[in-house]
Amino acid sequence: MMDDITPKPASGLHAEAAPRVRPPLSEAELERRRGKPWTLRVVGAVNIGPRMRRVQLTADNLDGFEPRPGQEIVLQIPQQDGEPARRHYTIRRFDRRSKLIDVDFVIHGDKTPGIRWALEARPGDAIDIRGPRGRIALAPEADWHLFSGDETAIPAIFALLEAMPKEAKAFAFIEIGSDAEKAALAAEADVTLVWLTRNGAAAGPSRRLIDAIEHFAPPPGKGHAIIIGETSNVRAQRHHLLEHGMTREQIYAEGYWRPGRIGGHDHVDN
User: Rounded to an integer, what is the distance from CA 183 to the centroid of its chain?
Assistant: First the structure.
């Protein structure tokens, strides 16, 4: 989890709290970050777990579609008012030869635009997207890798774990609603995967993942952490790692969702 588990002096923590001022982005950079526009069509949709539905997409012109493992696409879902709902979803898998993109959706009680679209998707349906996009990436120089997230993070964490070389070492903590939601991982790397079940409790802010991170005994060497999921849980884990020796550069933290909010991500850097 970290190179040095001794807490840093107070001065270091004060420095961490200082806000960072970023220069405004140019329109060209903003456009690059939005990702290239594509029009895809649905090939099929199937439930792959009690609360996970996979939609498979394709297009004839995907030769230039080059996602990194764990990156996302932004679906532009048509709405009755004419303004599309823009929703971010991880590319679970891209088969370049067959030009097939797998996108997994967590199905929960709130029928948000993304969930409604996934449930209603039929072969031949068209959807406009942008992507691939996102800063998430493996750190090839790391001696070991730490992953943490809830069920919304499974597509990204699994895509990253399955992209690792055989000699890589990784640890993953994933919170799920019940044991029935455990998924099969096809990774060549040395992966220690721990499932943390809520036993039917609702997803949201909790101690499950932070407790797992606090009790994690890191191996020797330099680590890299990817922490994703519910924003407050992500923030708590990031703060713990920073306070116990990891640097900003060793942690990627992204809040995928917050209770009561529909759509949007949080770049957790405070």
Answer: 16
Whichever domain contains 151, its CATH number is: 3.40.50.80
Cβ(230)–Cβ(256) below 8 Å? yes
CA neighbor of 75 nearest in space, from 131, 152, 134: 131
Judge contact between 195 and 223, C-beta under 8 A: no
* Residue 234 covered by a domain: yes
Q: What pLDDT is attached to residue 2? A: 37
User: Is the residue at 96 inside a domain?
Assistant: yes
Pairing mode, strands 144-149 and 223-230: parallel
- Evaluate if residue 81 carries a pLDDT over 80: yes
pLDDT given for residue 149 in this prediction: 98
Q: What is the pTM of this model?
A: 0.87
User: Can you give the residue range of the structural domain that contains 128?
Assistant: 35-133
Q: 133, 167, 194: which is the final residue of a domain?
A: 133
Q: Is residue 231 part of a domain?
A: yes
* Interval 73-90 mean pLDDT: 93
What percent of the chain is modeled with pLDDT above 70? Answer: 88
The CATH number of the domain holding residue 97 is: 2.40.30.10
- If one counts the domains in the chain, the total is 2
Please indicate, yes or no, whether residues 185 and 114 belong to a single structural domain of this protein.
no
Q: At what angle do helices 231-243 and 208-215 cross, to 10 degrees?
A: 20
Percent of the chain with pLDDT strictly greater than 90: 79
Q: What is the pLDDT of residue 4?
A: 33
* pLDDT of residue 18 exceeding 80: no
For residues 162 and 70, the answer to whether their CB atoms sit within 8 Å is: no
Distances (CA, A) of 190 to 19, 137, 158, 164: 37, 18, 13, 9
- What are the φ/ψ torsions at residue 62 (nearest 5 degrees)? -95, 15
145 and 16 within one domain: yes
